[in-house]
Automatic annotation (TrEMBL):
It catalyses: UDP-N-acetyl-alpha-D-muramate + NADP(+) = UDP-N-acetyl-3-O-(1-carboxyvinyl)-alpha-D-glucosamine + NADPH + H(+). GO terms for biological process: cell division; cell wall organization; peptidoglycan biosynthetic process; regulation of cell shape. One of its GO terms (cellular component) is cytosol. It is found in: Cytoplasm. This is UDP-N-acetylenolpyruvoylglucosamine reductase.
């Protein structure tokens, strides 16, 4: 990126993988770390800030987002490696991280290939795929504070669990992370990753507007199995539909509004609760005003 981008009333449908969402009061894409630090430092003390990558785990309501949205995908995108350690900035696509690490004969990074987002987003929600989770391979993370300063913090400074991370109160966003992987002694890591990606392509609506898995898997079960068992595959509300390929994915068409997606999420939860007694918890983050 040659220059920072700052726009008022930016439609968030341009920046979310569901391709829905109202305008952000202010939208900013930094040209560099320095530009990002200067921008954050200059914001009003109580300005709400929403950091996004690919917008792939995010539902922005039709009324839009008050405050500032900072988009990092394509901005902070450096990758480097030293021995079994890989450092990735927050805007790096997870699939790129997986390919980078396995190409250097490191094992344990392949699951990132199944995460449809950026490193920053994966850190924020402890994203996972194929049995792997982001924070299980984190060594340390670089964060930004409200005054624009940055610092590297050890993994022990954070509390995390299944699709959940608690950050220190003074942290406003992730800048980078250092991951530690195992050495791929038997040379199977790359083949395993390719097999996972082939399976994902065959079983998930890859290439369609979706936010990845809509719900967390409940203990001992799978959200997709429960949704399918309730006969909800293909169920539509407006321009949003439960995928006929994978029931834990909601896909949208060009007529969709964020309200369609949110209503479909509520309908799925209510139906599964009625038929099974299980309360599905959304994995996607819902932000903004309804109208």
């Amino acid at each position: 990126m040659s220059a920072s981008v700052e726009r008022q009333h930016e439609p968030m449908a341009r920046h979310t993988s569901w391709r829905v969402g109202g305008p952000a009061d202010r939208y900013f894409e930094p040209a560099s770390r320095e530009a990002l630090a200067d921008f954050v430092r200059g914001l009003p003390a109580h300005e709400p800030i929403l950091w996004i990558g690919l917008g792939s785990n995010l539902l922005v309501r039709d009324g839009g987002v008050r405050g500032t949205v900072i988009g990092l995908h394509g901005a902070l995108d450096a990758l480097s490696a030293e021995d079994a350690s890989v450092t990735a900035e927050a805007g790096v696509h997870c699939a790129r991280l997986a390919k980078f690490a396995t190409g250097r004969r490191l094992a344990g990074a392949g699951f990132f290939g199944g995460i449809p987002g950026t490193v920053g987003g994966a850190l924020a929600m402890n994203a996972g795929a194929h049995g792997g989770e982001t924070w299980n391979v984190v060594d340390a993370v670089e964060v930004m504070r409200r005054d624009g300063s940055t610092a590297w913090l050890p993994k022990s400074a954070f509390r995390y669990g299944y699709r959940h991370v608690e950050v220190p109160a003074d942290v406003v966003g992730f800048i980078a992370a250092r991951f530690t992987f195992a050495v791929d002694e038997d040379g199977t890591a790359e083949a395993d990753m390719k097999a996972w990606l082939a399976r994902r392509k065959a079983t998930q609506p890859v290439g369609r507007p979706t936010a990845g898995s809509t719900f967390r898997n409940p203990p001992g079960d799978h959200a997709a199995r429960l949704i399918e068992a309730c006969g909800l595959k293909g169920h539509r509300i407006g321009g949003a539909e439960v995928s006929t390929l994978h029931a834990n994915f909601i896909v949208t068409d060009e007529t969709a509004r964020a309200a369609d997606v949110e209503q479909l999420i509520a309908h799925i939860r209510a139906t599964v609760r009625t038929h099974t007694g299980i309360e599905l918890e959304p994995e996607v983050r819902v932000v903004g005003d309804a109208s």
